[in-house]
Each structure stands twice: as C-alpha cells, then as structure tokens.
Inverse folding.
C-alpha cells in the first residue's frame, strides 16, 4: 500500500486498526483528540466518546479483560482523572492487549499545565513507548499491543504536541483481524483485594525486571554511532531536533521505550562517547535514571524544564551556534484567541459583567471569557472545579454566595461537574451554577457528548436532560435561559444569585459553528444613527470594528445573533435582509 | 539537497490549513520527504496561527525556528511582521495586504501599527506584497484568498504548474474546484 502524509494522531489510529483494535473509548483533549476521531471512521472497530477519562480507561480495561484489543486516549491532564484505574489495571493485567495514548503538551499550546506523563508510567509501573514521528506512531501502536500481551500489562503510548500534530510519511498496510480471546474467570488475577493484590504486586515487580531485560536489546532502543565527541541520549521529538541540530557530529541513543529504561545499554553507549547529553523536554526523567545508575550526563543544568526544545536550542547550547535574523522595530500587538462571532457564551458573560459577580470558572471555549473585554472569570483550575470550588468558597464565606456563580460547559459538566453539584445539594450551599449548554464539546473541535443526543459516529442516541438531572440530585431551583437575550439573562441570574437555596441555570443555545444551526442575515450598522459611542464593542465580537468613528459589522463573520444590537441605545444596529 | 523550510502564517479561520495541505500534497508528488507541523486547538479561535512545512531528502525536525525559513507566506500584514524574525536573512516573504484587527486593537488597548509592510521591507527582507482578497473576489469568492496566495508562492518554487493543479484537484471538493483553479492561476501569474 501507498505512503501517506499523516499527522501522528492519524498514524496512531491507523496502527491500532492494523493491529486488530476492537474497542476504543476516549474523552477528547488537545492534542490527543484526532486519534479517536480517526478510529471512529473504521467501521470494524467499536468506538465511543466516554463522559471522562476514568470511564474511558475502565471501558478499555473491561474490553481487554473480555478478550478484545482495546484502547483509550487522553491528554496529559486526562491521565490524572484516569489514574485510579491505571494503577490497579497495572496489577490485574489484561487478557487481550490494552493500549493507552496520553498526549503531553510541552509549551502549553492548549493546556492549563505542563505536566510530564512519564512519571505516571513509573508510578503505576506500566510500560511506556514514545514515538518521534508519524511512521513510529503507527509502528509503536502495533508494537504496544504485542508488548501488552507479551508482558500482561496495559502499555502507554506517550505523544507530545509536535508528534501528535505533525504530518510525516507513513507506510500503511492491511488490518490483522484478531478474534475475541476467550475470557476465563480468574479472581486471583482480576479481583484486586488485599489477598490477591499482595501476590500481584510481586508479579508486577518481576514484570518490570523482565521488561528491563527486554529494553536492553529492544530494537526501538536504537544506537547510531557517528562522531563520538558528543553522545546524545534522547527520545520522542527531541531526537528529531537533535538530529537536525547535530547531524553526524554526534552519536545517538534513541529510547523508543521510556519506561522502564535499560541500564547496561545506556552505560555502554555513554562509555563510548566523550561528552554525553540527555535531551528531553519537561522533567529530567531519563537524566535522573542515568545519574542514579552512575552515568555522567549533562541535562537540565544546560537546558530547561519549561516549554519545548528545538533544533535551535540544541545547536545553541551544544555547538554555540545561532541563526541570524532580522526584525521590524514595530510594537506588534498580540493576537489572542477570541470567542467566535455569535458565540452563545458572549451574551451570558456580558450579563455576568453587568451584575458584577465573582465567577468560579472552568475549562472550555468559555474560558476565553476571562480575557478582555469581558474579563469575567476569577478562577479556573481543572475540569469540574468551577462547581466544587464555588461550594468551597461559599462555605468559607457565606456572603460570597450572594455575589457569585460558577460557569461550566455541558461537556465539562458531564465530565466532572455533576459530582460537585451533588455535593452542593447534599451539603447545601446557596451556590448558583450556570451550565453553558452549547450542545457540543467546543474547545477540542466539536465532539458529541452525553447531552447532545448523538454518538461519536453521529448516530442518534439518548440525551441527558440537564434539567431532570439537576432536579434528581436535589436542586429545586432549575431555570433555562437564552444567552442571546441579555435582559432575560440578567434578570434570571440576579434572582438566582439572591435566592436562599442552591440553583442551576441552564444557558441554552447551540455553538455558532455547528452545521445544523441556521443563522439569521448579518446585522448592519446604520451610519446615520451610529454616534460612535463604542458601546457595541464592549462584548468583544470579532465581527465588529470601528471605521471612521462609526461601528461597522463584517458581513462575512456576523451570524446575526443580535446581541450587539441590544447594547446600542440608538437603535443603530439593524437587522439585515 | 538541503532541507527547505516554509512557513504559512495568518489568523485562525483564514484557511491556512488548506494551504499547508496543498503544499504538502504537491511536495509529496515531487518525491520529497515532507513534514508539516500544524496548529490545532486554542489558537484556532481567531488567534495567530502558524504552520511549518519542511521538505528535502530526509527531514528531521518538523518545526522552523528564528532565521530558518526560506519562504514565509503571510495571510495578514501584522502576522508577516510578527513572524519575520523566522525568515532566513536571504529568504523570501510573501505578504497579503489584508489587515485583520486583533482583539486588543478592536477594544482600543493596543494600536495596529502604521506602515507594517514598509517596516518589513525596510529590514532588507525580500518582500512580495499582494492584495489577494481582490484577486480572490475576482476569481469568484473572498474565501479563495488562501489559494490565491498558494499561487503566488508556487510561482516562487521549482514545482511545475501541472503538479500544483493535480494537488488542488486531489484536495479541494469538486464544487469549489473551478473557483480554486482560477484563484490559483491569478496568484501564480501575479507580479508586482
Ligand atoms: C481532564 C481534562 N480532560 C480534557 C481536557 C480538554 N478539554 C478542555 S475543555 C474541554 C471540554 C469543553 O467542552 P464544554 O465544556 O462543552 O465547553 P465548550 O468548549 O463547548 O464551550 C475539554 C475536553 C482538559 N482540559 N482536562
Ligand atoms: S466554537 Fe462554538 S462555543 Fe467555541 S467560541 Fe466558537 S461559537 Fe463559541
Ligand atoms: S449580530 Fe453583532 S454580536 Fe452577533 S455576530 Fe453579528 S456583529 Fe457579532
């Protein structure tokens, strides 16, 4: 079959498919999302979006025990959520192979922190592979299934943004159909109670020793000798940066398996090279392994714990070389991302701004409401924290309840907001939770979720009723508002914040980018009525700008939501035809 | 041959991803090793976006750093200036004259500088300016700006017209094919 130019995520999906994957369950998260989106295109694989990563990993574990090669994907912080099943699935092991993809985001292109997932591999004693380009994504995905079955363990495939989202050439081949393996009841293996787990822990420790022995000779831990003046120990994308920066002026030990790491292989390589560098983004994971084993290397003291590496950084540190460049002396304004024209979140935030409340925030497109000109978010920690942290604030300071709300998206609410809401009802704080129900998981590129009524394949399914769910957990005050209606938003939020009981407000309007949403004609500014007061600019719609002291609306962007016209005191923003 | 580096920069929503896909397809059919690094996620919501395209016998790193791009294709003036430091000192920069105000400018906390492309030229950079929006409108739709710009870039590269045409046929939906072929042609034959 032919060579294709695939992003790393597509190549992972292809590799899993070729290896006979049967069940995939994931929760979206940049930069991991496309893996599962691509899997969904294969009709011979069952795939789904789970409500969160813990559920996804448990689904994959169950499927693997049932005898199907299974998979789940998540971004780095998703592994925090799924850590519980990970640590014990490490003990039970699998029946058919189980692969977990976790995508780290050095440089935080699209994340709230810069954690290094390799620590999870070590902490949970689960093997971890790390590819450096799309071809390796495909090959390692296949290998991961084989290793999973060889060592009776889940195997983690670690990606970083530059591998997940870069295209490079991939050789695809046919699928190797794998029949369902027989499941045999075996409580000593699959029921983890102290009696069984004590025995299993011994198995796990032996497994690590066996894997280290494997790693000593594994082909994916490869050595390339060139000049031995410089030796480079590296893995993943850093290998590609090093190759570009140093070429044949260095020798390379490329570690395709980053946990567990070989000892003798590294020692032998280091012994042959004059000066040995460890090149790895984020934490000194390989470096500490080397130092623990008495191997002298240069690592973080010469590089950095923050952000991405690059060929330039490596050339500068190791060779002292820098490329010349020119720059203008202009003061170039930043171009931060913004809520789309017609985004339903905008009107809701404007109402919050008018009420001047404290906003316990969460993660999604709506986090952009933290930026100017809306600037209406006080905190944002992790998915679900808006709801639980608001309860905490309100318990710490009862006055807070009368001037604060939580905002959380529909997908985020399903992911981990609902447990916080149960806590609010159970432990009774007068908290006001606003669910921003745009009927999609917007931030990560529009995935369906349990509230949208559609599966990952777009087939109709049951949809969670947020109203009934809120009532069922014990919230009596549940109201629904339209975020395009500013007066209604303001009034309802004011009433619910003032109420002496917990309440849920569902701000409902689909994301403006959804294909099924019918938009009105673009609005027009009547220049005779516009006095140039800039009132309409206060909502930060990217379709509105000022030309010659009058507001103008870009007809290619405007979707006719009419939120801006509700701000104009002169009726200057008129409906288009 | 040495690896060549191209950057496509613009504003989220301008169609830079299609441009890099077309370029990737054309390079692939020329038999090069190709790597393309894309931006997904947060930066797509109207933020500044950059795509790196590298090709040659064997490409290692998928990204481009300061002073390394042989060619920068900028979809917007301010983005041309923002990414100029990534150009090789003897590289070529092609800039669309379109101006899109970033949010800090819209709300008045920053100013869109005057004479952006003049400032770019004043650094000694080899600059080609083009009003791609007008050409796209002439070709039939303002949305074809990206393909007009690809046309201009193609005229600076060593790949035959037929290869580009095939890449467009393979990448663009039938419905928009005629429009895009025309847009490409306008860009390709543009001279300033
Ligand atoms: C634990 C975890 N998993 C995944 C993500 C990635 N992520 C960020 S926001 C989000 C969901 C956004 O959807 P929604 O709450 O519906 O808000 P919208 O973007 O549609 O406004 C996801 C999946 C994350 N940040 N943390
Ligand atoms: S994608 Fe949808 S939810 Fe996200 S900013 Fe745009 S309109 Fe709003
Ligand atoms: S009606 Fe106003 S707020 Fe809505 S998209 Fe158009 S310009 Fe933006």
């Amino acid at each position: 079959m032919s060579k294709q130019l695939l992003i790393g995520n597509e190549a992972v999906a292809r590799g899993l498919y070729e290896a006979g994957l049967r069940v995939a369950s994931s929760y979206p998260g940049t930069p991991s999302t496309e893996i599962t989106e691509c899997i969904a295109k294969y009709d011979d694989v069952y795939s789904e979006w789970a409500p969160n990563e813990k559920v996804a990993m448990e689904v994959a574990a169950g499927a693997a025990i049932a005898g199907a090669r299974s998979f789940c994907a998540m971004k780095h912080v998703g592994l925090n959520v799924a850590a519980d099943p990970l640590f014990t699935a490490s003990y039970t092991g699998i029946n058919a192979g189980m692969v977990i993809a976790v995508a780290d985001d050095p440089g935080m292109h699209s994340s709230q922190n810069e954690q290094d997932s390799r620590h999870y591999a070590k902490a949970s004693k689960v093997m971890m592979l790390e590819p450096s380009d799309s071809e390796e994504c495909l090959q390692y995905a296949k290998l991961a299934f084989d290793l999973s079955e060889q060592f009776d363990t889940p195997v983690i495939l670690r990606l970083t943004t530059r591998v997940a989202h870069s295209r490079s050439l991939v050789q695809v081949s046919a699928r190797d159909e794998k029949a369902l393996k027989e499941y045999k009841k075996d409580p000593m293996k699959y029921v983890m109670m102290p009696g069984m787990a004590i025995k299993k822990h011994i198995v796990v420790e032996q497994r690590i020793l066996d894997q280290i022995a494997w790693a000593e000779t594994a082909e994916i831990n490869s050595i390339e000798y060139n000049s031995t003046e410089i030796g480079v120990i590296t893995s993943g994308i850093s290998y590609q940066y090093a190759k570009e920066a140093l070429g044949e002026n260095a020798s390379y030990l490329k570690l395709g398996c980053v946990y567990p790491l070989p000892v003798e292989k590294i020692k032998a390589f280091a012994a042959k090279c004059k000066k040995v560098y460890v090149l790895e983004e984020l934490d000194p994971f390989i470096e500490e392994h080397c130092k623990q084993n008495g191997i002298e290397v240069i690592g973080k003291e010469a590089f950095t714990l923050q952000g991405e590496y690059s060929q330039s950084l490596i050339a500068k540190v190791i060779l002292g070389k820098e490329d010349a460049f020119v720059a203008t002396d202009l003061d170039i304004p930043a171009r931060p991302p913004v809520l789309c024209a017609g985004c339903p979140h905008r009107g809701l935030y404007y109402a919050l701004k008018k009420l001047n409340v404290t906003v316990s925030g969460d993660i999604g497109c709506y986090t952009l409401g933290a930026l100017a000109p809306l600037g209406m978010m006080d905190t944002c920690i992790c998915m679900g924290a808006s709801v639980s942290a608001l309860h905490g604030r309100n318990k710490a300071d009862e006055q807070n309840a009368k001037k604060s709300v939580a905002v959380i998206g529909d997908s985020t609410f399903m992911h981990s907001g609902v447990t916080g809401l149960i806590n609010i009802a159970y432990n009774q704080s007068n908290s006001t939770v606003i669910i921003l129900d745009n009927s999609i998981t917007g931030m990560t590129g529009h995935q369906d979720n349990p509230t949208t009524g559609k599966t990952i394949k777009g087939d109709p399914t049951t949809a969670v009723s947020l109203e009934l769910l809120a009532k069922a957990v014990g919230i009596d005050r549940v109201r629904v508002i339209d975020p395009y209606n500013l007066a209604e938003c303001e009034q309802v939020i004011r009433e619910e914040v003032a109420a002496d009981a917990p309440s849920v407000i569902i701000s409902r309007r689909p994301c403006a980018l959804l294909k099924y949403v019918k938009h009105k004609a673009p609005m027009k500014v009547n220049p005779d009525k516009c006095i140039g007061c800039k009132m309409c600019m206060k909502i930060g719609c990217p379709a509105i700008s000022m030309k010659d002291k009058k507001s103008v609306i870009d007809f290619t962007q405007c979707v006719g939501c009419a939120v801006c016209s509700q701000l104009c005191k002169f009726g200057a923003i008129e409906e288009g035809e | 041959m040495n690896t060549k580096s191209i950057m496509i920069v613009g504003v989220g929503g301008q169609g830079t991803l299609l441009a890099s896909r077309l370029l990737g397809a054309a390079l692939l059919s020329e038999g090069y090793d190709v790597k393309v690094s894309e931006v997904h996620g947060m930066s797509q919501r109207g933020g500044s976006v950059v795509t790196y395209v590298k090709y040659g016998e064997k490409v290692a790193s998928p990204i481009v750093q300061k002073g390394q791009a042989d060619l920068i294709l900028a979809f917007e003036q301010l983005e041309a200036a923002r990414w100029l430091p990534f150009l090789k000192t003897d590289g070529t920069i092609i800039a669309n004259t379109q101006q899109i105000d970033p949010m800090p400018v819209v709300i008045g906390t920053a100013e869109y500088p005057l004479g952006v492309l003049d400032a770019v030229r004043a650094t000694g950079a080899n600059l080609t300016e083009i009003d791609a929006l007008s050409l796209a409108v002439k070709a039939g739709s303002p949305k074809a700006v990206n393909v007009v710009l690809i046309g201009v870039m193609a005229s600076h590269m060593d790949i035959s017209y037929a290869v580009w045409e095939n890449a467009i046929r393979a990448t663009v939906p039938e419905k928009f094919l005629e429009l895009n072929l025309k847009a490409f042609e306008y860009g390709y034959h543009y001279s300033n």
